[in-house]
Amino acid sequence: MDFWSFVSDRRQQLLTDTYQHASAVFQCMVVASAVGIGIGVLTYRNDRAGRLAIATTVTIMTVPSYALLGLLIPVLGLGVPPTVTALVLYALLPILRNAIVGLRGVDPTLVDAARGIGMSRTAQILKVELPLAWPSILTGIRVATQMLMGIAAVAAYASGPGLGNEIFNGISSLGSANALNQVLAGTLGIVVLALLFDFALVLIGRLTTSRGIRG
Fold first, then answer.
1. CB 144 within 8 A of CB 95
2. C-alpha to C-alpha distance for 44 and 140, rounded to whole angstroms
3. What is the pLDDT of residues 143-152, one digit of tens each?
4. What Rg do the C-alpha atoms of the chain give, in angstroms?
5. What DSSP letter does each residue of 148-185 carry, written as one string?
6. pTM over 0.85
7. Cα(146)–Cα(174) distance, integer angstroms
8. What are phi and psi of 129, to 5 degrees?
9. PROSITE patterns given for it (predicted)?
10. Residues 156, 167 contacting (CB under 8 angstroms)
């Protein structure tokens, strides 16, 4: 069976795996973005706290995905819980680091001006600092999203959802008629999803960044 016939024959399963893969990455990115930006806001003014936060997420990134899933499975079991936990942990570094860099790069005179007109600390962060740091933060989110697209495939090792199941099933049955087609379908699906997500994030950046900041 040629590749396109294979895709047509397994269309429904491939669509289901694609949806699950996209859904897992999207939901994990939402959680990781909230956590990463939150930690960045709490630590960017303190050099020691910022270094500690970044060092912690760097340490997490050095753990191979197979090993991390292997450590999580005895605690969380198989399926969605270890997948979500691993993806969120891996996404934190680029988001947190770019949040800290972006917030530290905000012109202090603008913050002083906001304080001078009576803005509270929370208002300064929400209305001045985060909007100005947003391009840097969004870059971190884009990097993390591309990373998670590939890492999410490895989650099939823990019976996680997504296109990784096609890749793992194909690899485990190498030599059979459709093994290569399965690997190729899963791989191409992940590549297409990564491109679509990146395009969406670029569009979000254009819609949410003021022209003055974009230059």
1. yes
2. 15
3. 999 999 999 9
4. 20
5. HHHHHHHGGGGT-SSTHHHHHHHHHTTTSTTHHHHHHH
6. yes
7. 27
8. -70, -50
9. ABC_TM1
10. yes
Say what angle helices 164-172 and 130-154 make with each other, to 10 degrees.
Answer: 20
Over residues 24-54, the pLDDT tens digits come to 999 999 999 999 999 999 999 999 999 999 9
CA distance 185 to 4: 9
Q: How far is CA 79 from CA 97, 212, 214, in A?
A: 29, 45, 41
CA dist., res. 182 & res. 178, Å (int): 6
CB 76 within 8 A of CB 82: yes
DSSP 8-state code for residue 79: S
* Residue 164 φ/ψ, nearest 5 degrees: -60, -25
Per-residue burial over 21-58, b = 16 or more CB atoms within 10 Å of its CB, e = otherwise = bbebbeebbeebbebbbebbbebbeeeeebeebbeebe
Q: How many residues in the chain?
A: 215
Could you tell me if 69 and 157 are in contact, meaning their C-beta atoms sit under 8 angstroms apart?
Answer: yes
Helices (runs of H) and strands (runs of E) counted in the chain: 11, 0
With left for phi above 0 and alpha for psi between -120 and 50, is residue 174 left, alpha or beta? Answer: beta
Question: Distance (Å, rounded) from C-alpha 146 to C-alpha 29?
Answer: 10
